[in-house]
Every structure is written in C-alpha cells, then in structure tokens.
Design goal:
With 142 residues, the protein is an alpha/beta fold. The chain contains five helices and six strands; from the N terminus they run H-E-E-E-H-E-H-E-H-E-H.
C-alpha cells in the first residue's frame, strides 16, 4: 500500500512496522526509512483508540519529521482517542465520512473529513451495471 501511494505521488516513503501482542496494544514499533526534515503522512485503514497513530507520530517527530499528518479510512475514535489526538503533535487527522464525525470534530479540532459519498455511489452503480470498479482507482469522480 505504501509503495503504491508513494509511486502515484512520486515521493519517497518510509514505513512503520508494528507488532501487536493483542488488540489495541502495540508491543513494538520500528521506523524503516528516513523522515528527517520531511513532512510525514501516516496512512492507515482505521483508528480506534488512537494509541498506535499517536505513538507513530511521536516516533516520526523524534526521527526528525517537521510535521505529521494522519490519513485514515475509518475514524472510530473510541475511549481516549480524542484526547490523545488533541495532545499529539498532528497537524491534522483526516478521515473519510464512512462514520459520522461531526460530533467528534466539535471536541477535536484536528479532525477533518473527506466526503466519499460520490465515489461509493459510483462504485455501487458500476457494480449494479456490471462495469469495472477498478476503473475508479485512476478516475475518481468529483
């Protein structure tokens, strides 16, 4: 996933390898790559309690990143998530609107959302009509 995004944006990348002993608990986290004097963008599928992304942001900043953003598909934001994000060094945490975020955004100004309703509607339309859904990976409807 990281190399695909980096190739499309024509940028270099680093990654964070994490090992879990159990759910919502990271045992070990290792940064692979150089982020010194760069803006870092964390990309993940979902964030629940946000312990992992906040720990990753700290690791990136301690490795020399100048700014850290997070981009997430699903922002669950349960338990201590909002206070963790508020106290973390993120410039912004951007999520899709697969889960309503308006209420959480009132308590955490770093959260921003991207409306993906049009792309979901187009994917459903294409599936219903037997058309290519993979076409959407390179042709995003606006």
């Amino acid at each position: 996933r990281v190399t695909s995004i980096a190739d499309r944006l024509n940028v270099e990348f680093a990654l964070i390898h994490k090992e879990r002993k159990k759910a919502n608990e990271v045992d070990r986290m290792v940064l692979v790559g150089d982020v010194k004097d760069r803006v870092a963008i964390l990309v993940d599928d979902m964030a629940d309690t946000c312990g992992t992304i906040c720990h990753a942001a700290d690791k990136l900043l301690s490795a020399g990143a100048t700014k850290v953003y997070a981009i997430l598909t699903h922002g669950i934001f349960s338990g201590p998530a909002l206070s963790r994000i508020n106290n973390a060094s993120f410039e912004a945490v951007v999520v899709t609107n697969t889960i309503p975020q308006e209420e959480k955004m009132k308590h955490c100004p770093k959260i921003q959302f991207i409306d993906i309703s049009m792309i979901l509607a187009e994917a459903i339309r294409r599936t219903h009509n037997g058309e290519s859904v993979s076409y959407l990976f390179s042709h995003v409807p606006l």
